[in-house]
Amino acid sequence: MNSVALVSGASRGIGRATALLLAQQGYAVGVNYLSNEAAAQSVVDEIVNAGGRAIALQADIADEEQVVAMFQRLSDKLGPITALVNNAGILFQQTTIENLTAARINKVLSTNVTGYFLCCREAVKIMSHRHGGNGGAIVNVSSAAARLGAPGEYIDYAASKGAVDTLTTGLSLEVAAYGIRVNCVRPGLIYTEMHASGGEPGRVDRLKTHLPMQRGGQPEEVAQAIAWLLSDSASYVTGSFIELAGGK
Fold first, then answer.
1. Is the N or the C terminus of the chain less surrounded, counting Cβ atoms within 10 Å?
2. How many CA atoms lie less than 13 Å away from 108 in the CB half-sphere?
3. Domain limits of the chain?
4. How many Å apart are CA 168 and CA 67, to the nearest integer?
5. What is the pLDDT of residues 165-194, one digit of tens each?
6. Are 183 and 242 in contact (CB under 8 A)?
7. CATH topology for 4-244?
8. pLDDT at 193
9. 144 within 8 A of 245, measured Cβ to Cβ
10. In what residue span(s) does the Ketoreductase domain sit (predicted)?
11. Listing from the earlier edge strand, what are the strands of the sheet with 83-86?
12. Would you give the distance in Å from CA 205 to the centre of its chain?
């Protein structure tokens, strides 16, 4: 069976590392991005130049129509999806609750929660034995913030990732009998561009000494866990969480 993966938010960071690794493992990869077409195309080019198959897929995962259209393009160009990595996510400037607005909270939730639900919905429609599919696997990218709460920084983001954890648990039980496994990774302090979005590009280096392992993580280390959860090596694993947070 042709292995086809969709990685949301795949133009940078963990998503990029995951798309490249899955391509090395033989997946045809849909590289989803929101706005940075050049970055997404560079991921596609790297995969294609190495002999793999990949396409760039622009879509705002918070927009239902765009998500539906993206899955249709993926099926048309690469074939029916067998692996979904829900990775796209946003956060805003570090602040306390006094400065949070409804607009900011809703923006975070629409991408980090609603977007994950929509992508899961479309993947299940294709993968599920109940719909004539061949099964598949989903990995949701949560965050150690779901456990720790991100006080004084972005509790709205942390709360959105708590919702991702609950989605993982509930969906894993809902589709287990229909050939779909659903698991989750919780990265901690990883060297990605996302910290700049929170206003502190050097955040990992500031906090790494507080971790038992005394270092930040690399996107490739998270990608390895995602790829394992998608693989047949994890064929009896569903509803599980892998902590990638250096021991904290």
1. N
2. 21
3. 4-244
4. 19
5. 999 999 999 999 999 999 999 999 999 988
6. yes
7. Rossmann fold (3.40.50)
8. 86
9. yes
10. 3-190
11. 54-58, 28-33, 4-7, 83-86, 136-141, 180-187, 241-244
12. 23
**Is the overall model pTM greater than 0.90, yes or no?**
yes
**1 has pLDDT over 70:** no
Give the residue numbers annotated as catalytic, written as ranges: 157
From residue 39, how far is each of 45, 119, 238 by CA, in Å?
10, 22, 32
Please provide the average confidence, as pLDDT, over all residues in the chain.
97
- Helix then strand then coil, % of the chain, to nearest 5: 50, 15, 35
- Helices 13-24 and 37-49 pack at an angle, to 10 degrees, of 20
pLDDT tens string 130-151: 999 999 999 999 999 999 999 9
Q: How confident is the model at residue 201 (pLDDT cuts 50, 70, 90)?
A: confident
Task: Report helix, strand or coil for 193.
Answer: coil
Residues 3, 240, 226, CA angle at the centre, nearest 5°? 40
CA 172 to chain centre: 16
Distant-in-sequence contacts of 51-54, Cβ < 8 A, 24+ apart: 52/23, 52/24, 52/26, 52/27, 52/28, 53/23, 53/28, 53/29, 53/78, 54/19, 54/23, 54/28, 54/29, 54/30
Instruction: Give the position of tokens 């038992």.
Output: 212
Calculate the alpha carbon distances from 69 to 38, 56, 57, 59, 91 in Å: 21, 13, 10, 8, 25
Strands (E), the chain: 4-7, 28-33, 54-58, 83-86, 136-141, 180-187, 241-244
Tens-digit pLDDT profile for residues 50-76: 999 999 999 999 999 999 999 999 999
